[in-house]
Design brief:
The chain is of the alpha+beta class and 407 residues long. It contains 10 helices and 6 strands, in the order ααβββββααβαααααα.
Length: 407
């Protein structure tokens, strides 16, 4: 177990997480791709007033917005029942930043995504959530840089409308050094953000006619020439909205709404596909390791089988020898061990005598310790037995040398 895993285990235990293994696996999978996030414990106050100590992933995620990489500060709180309960995601602006309220981020900075409202522990994980957040934030930034308070500083540098921090020595947030894009301000300013209007502006709608020179006069009539002459100078443009105009406007609005909904669904499905690919890669790697372990286990089984067969064979031989020994009568102990040559028989006898002297020396020492034998008798027997043991060992070494055996 690595050092980070031990720290994460202590953190999960501190926050009383019920599903530690699943939560740890989900956190490590997300941190392996988003390396700027750091797990820690933090207090979170629920809308009901309950305050709990929860596991929190705090840090920045890289977002590619208008060909520049911005590090968006985020916090993701994990409940004690994660992954069976959806996490709570926030963007955390610095004092120099302001929140761009949208459908994705509310005024408090909380992130609202379909994958959070439709969270499922079997198909949803933190990596999919973070990946979907980077996709959504790249379409519409969740944060703005606040405009400079000193107008002289803003007008002193060229292009200050595009680079609000041009006069500062260091930006409040560093840009991603791993990116190959040019140096840009840490976040886009509100003055440079421009989004297309959901509907064409006035005087640009191709479905609404412009006033014409020959206007229709409803008060002009052949039966009332005086009225016609009185109103001849007044012209009314033919700008009435026809039913087909309403129809085209509704069609355009529905198309925009369907297109936006379809894009959200595509982004969510792409994030799910990316998450499934990552899970598939992990499963394939685990399958390779599992196959290796299975092969090793099979080899061990074959080895054990061969050893078992050999053990059975030796057991049968021993049983046969025992049966033969039972049928023999008047068998002495000396006949039980058969030596191939007289030299080996002599070596066996020498070794047996030496072991007997060794036992005798031990018992003499025990008797002298318990004072059952006198000192003079003890020393006399020790000298005699030691001299004989030396003679036996010398003879045994000579015999082993003669038999070409190691000493």
């Amino acid at each position: 177990m690595s050092f980070n895993e031990r720290i994460l285990n202590d953190l999960l235990t501190k926050c009383s997480c019920k599903y530690k293994d699943s939560t740890k696996r989900d956190i490590l999978g997300a941190l392996s791709y988003f390396k700027d996030l750091l797990p820690k414990s933090d207090r979170y106050a629920y809308p009901t007033g309950i305050v709990k100590e929860l596991v929190c992933l705090s840090g920045t995620i890289p977002v590619n917005f208008r060909n520049a990489v911005y590090n968006i500060p985020v916090q993701i709180f994990l409940s004690d029942t994660h992954p069976y309960e959806a996490p709570i995601a926030y963007v955390r602006p610095t004092p120099e930043m302001s929140i761009n309220v949208s459908e994705t981020v509310d005024s408090s900075g909380r992130v609202r995504l379909p994958c959070l409202t439709e969270w499922n522990h079997q198909n949803s994980d933190l990596y999919m959530l973070l990946n979907l957040m980077t996709i959504k934030f790249s379409e519409q930034t969740p944060l703005f840089s606040k405009p400079a308070r000193n107008p002289a500083m803003a007008s002193a540098s060229t292009g200050a409308i595009n680079r609000p921090y041009a006069t500062s020595s260091t930006p409040p947030y560093p840009t991603d050094t791993r990116s190959s894009f040019p140096v840009t301000p840490p976040y886009p300013t509100a003055s440079v953000m421009s989004y297309p209007a959901p509907y064409p502006a006035a005087n640009t709608n191709p479905y609404y006619p412009m006033p014409t020179a020959h206007a229709y006069n409803p008060m002009k009539s052949a039966s009332n020439p005086s009225m016609s002459q009185a109103t001849a100078r007044v012209s009314y443009p033919d700008d009435t909205i026809k039913p087909e105009h309403y129809r085209m406007s509704l069609i355009s609005a529905v198309q925009d709404k369907i297109r936006k909904k379809f894009k959200d669904m595509c982004d969510e499905k792409l994030a799910e596909i990316d998450s499934l690919k990552r899970v598939n890669y992990d499963l394939e790697s685990s399958q390779v390791n599992l196959n290796t372990l299975i092969k090793e286990a099979e080899n061990e089984c074959l080895n054990i089988q061969s050893l078992t067969d050999e053990l059975r064979k030796k057991t049968n031989e021993l049983n046969e020898s025992l049966k033969q020994m039972k049928h023999r009568d008047n068998t002495s102990e000396e006949d039980a061990v058969v030596t191939p040559t007289p030299l080996y028989r002599q070596m066996l006898q020498l070794y047996a005598e030496e072991m007997a002297i060794q036992d005798l020396l031990f018992f003499l020492s025990e008797g002298f310790t318990h004072k059952t034998i006198g000192t003079d008798n003890f020393l006399q027997q020790i000298r005699y037995l030691s001299r004989k043991q030396f003679y036996l060992r010398a003879t045994l070494n000579k015999a082993r040398e003669q038999a070409a055996l190691p000493l």
